[in-house]
Amino acid sequence: MILLKLENLSVRYGDVLALREACIAVQEKMITSLVGANGAGKSTTLRAISGLVPCSQGSLYFEDHNIDPLSTDQRVELGLIQIPEGRLVFPYMTVRENLEMGSMTKRSRKERNENLERVMEMFPVLRERKDQLASTLSGGEQQMLAIARGLMAKPRLLMLDEPSLGLSPLLVKEIFQTLKRINGQGTTILLVEQNVKQSLEIAHWGYTLENGRIVLSDGAQDLLKSDHVRKAYLGL
């Protein structure tokens, strides 16, 4: 089943057309990767889905319902949850307080304690650091906190913007393994990444975005083998 569909979606920043007639389908319970170079329009795509930027053309459908008229908070209530680039945790709140902030939606508030236990089981380091200020965590720990905070909202679709940014290779590997585990538990994921190889390795389907346009879409493993991806992104 298609959970999210973008039909000919375009976004403008003034005179600049940042996203051009993008058509994307995200299948339920799968990982879909949107890959491309910096400035290709990947973050703009997520911001458009979340309702953070207006679309100049096209439509968005979530579970077959048009969500164009909905505000950002209404989309969050539907279960469209975005983990922003740069983590953006609340630095002067504790780890536990950050996690509780993730469960402010009506659909998640009643299950706050259950979800808190779930994410702490998934990220044991957060249980150890639950009373620490988020600003005292390492970059990798803050990224784990950002992901866990998103999971506290009971996402129908978890969207991640460059989760590997600024992390060591070892932590990057751990983050991608975590995303695969989250998906294995039934959460649909839309992953935006510059790390083309690792994001496609864990994905079921992939899209390549260049200069605001979708230029390739295929099964993730087939994209990895394509000459264009190998030459443009993998240096092969």
Keyphrases for this structure?
236 residues; alpha/beta; Rossmann fold; 4-stranded antiparallel β-sheet; 28% strand
Q: Which helices and strands, and how do they pair?
A:
Elements: E1 2-13, E2 16-27, E3 31-35, H1 42-50, E4 57-62, E5 65-66, H2 72-78, E6 80-83, H3 95-101, H4 106-109, H5 112-122, H6 124-128, H7 139-151, E7 157-161, H8 169-184, E8 188-193, H9 196-202, E9 205-210, E10 213-219, H10 220-225, H11 227-232
Parallel strand pairs: 3-8, 3-9, 6-7, 7-8
Antiparallel strand pairs: 1-2, 1-4, 4-5, 9-10
Helix pairs in contact: 3-7
Structural account:
The chain has helices at residues 42-50, 72-78, 95-101, 106-109, 112-122, 124-128, 139-151, 169-184, 196-202, 220-225, 227-232, and strands at residues 2-13, 16-27, 31-35, 57-62, 65-66, 80-83, 157-161, 188-193, 205-210, 213-219. The protein has a domain at 1-79 and 156-167 and 188-236: Rossmann fold. The radius of gyration is 17 Å and the shape is globular. The termini are far apart. The chain has 236 residues and is of the alpha/beta class. Strands 6-7-8-3-9-10 form a six-stranded mixed sheet, sandwiched between helices. A four-stranded antiparallel sheet has the order 2-1-4-5, covered by helices on one side. A hairpin with a 2-residue loop joins strand 1 (2-13) and strand 2.
Could you give a short description of this structure?
The protein is α/β, with parallel strands linked by helices and 236 residues long. It has helices at 42-50, 72-78, 95-101, 106-109, 112-122, 124-128, 139-151, 169-184, 196-202, 220-225, 227-232, and strands at residues 2-13, 16-27, 31-35, 57-62, 65-66, 80-83, 157-161, 188-193, 205-210, 213-219. The strands form 2 sheets. A 6-stranded mixed β-sheet has the order 6-7-8-3-9-10, with helices on both faces. A 4-stranded antiparallel β-sheet has the order 2-1-4-5, covered by helices on one side.
